[in-house]
Write a structure and sequence with these properties.
Elements: H1 5-16, H2 20-33, H3 38-55, H4 63-66, H5 72-87, H6 93-111, H7 136-149
């Protein structure tokens, strides 16, 4: 039985929207509907890895963390690269399933309407400009001044 694309599409939408509890339930549904083959095992491992990477946004070196979901050209280029790996006869079934999941991910995300991240000048200013709020830098600076006076 092939993997239901509706479940996978919903799963990708949920992880992009950072709705992790619902994404985890959807991932479990995908797992239950899969046959036990090496290709499906690779596909599932890729899905689970995407979930973990998206949930732990602090990993700046992970591929999924660095993706710009609004850059359709880059997503399409990545998809072509994953499709090339998927079609490579040197890879085993596990690897081809893994790359297939990534190709599906790039295809689905590129079809979603995701707004680009705000530009640098639009970011919210830190508390440093708000004099009524104490920051650790201000606290340390005031303590150093007091120590110098003594």
């Amino acid at each position: 039985m092939p993997i239901a694309q509706a479940l996978v599409t919903r799963y990708f939408q949920l992880i992009v929207a950072r709705q992790f509890s619902e994404a985890e339930r959807e991932l479990e549904r995908v797992k239950q509907k899969m046959q036990k083959t090496e290709w499906n095992r690779g596909y599932f491992r890729a899905l689970y890895g995407m979930y973990l990477t998206r949930k732990n946004a602090a990993d700046d070196y992970a591929f999924f963390s660095k993706l710009d979901f609004s850059d359709k050209v880059a997503l399409n280029d990545h998809r072509k690269e994953f499709l090339n790996h998927m079609g490579n006869g040197l890879h085993g079934d596990f690897d081809r399933g893994f790359f297939s999941a990534w190709a599906d991910c790039m295809r689905i995300i590129s079809r979603m309407n995701i707004a680009p991240p705000p530009a640098e000048e639009e970011k919210i200013e830190t508390l440093r400009t708000d004099k009524s709020q104490a920051t650790i830098a201000n606290f340390l600076k005031e303590n150093k001044i007091e120590e110098d006076k003594q």
